[in-house]
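Render this sequence as a predicted structure.
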Amino acid sequence: MIINPNVVVREGGFVFHAERGDSFSVNPVGAEILRLLRQGQTVAEVVQELENRYDADVATIEKDVTDFFDVLRHYQILEAS
């Protein structure tokens, strides 16, 4: 997964889709996930990083990341790599 090149992501969780003119806010974990994707990490690496940082089981993290990615794809923030 890659972030659409028309999308700007700011540190505080502000997401702007320049082509569509849409803006969104994500929580700190969402901002962290987007930062990791910008760094080129894979979905598995993102899940591993979150598992290392947060006290949650991997199945919950995988489901939450999958759900978040579904929303990002819906709003054309993510593209298939």
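Summary. The helical segments are 28-38, 43-53, 58-74. The longest strand covers residues 14-17.
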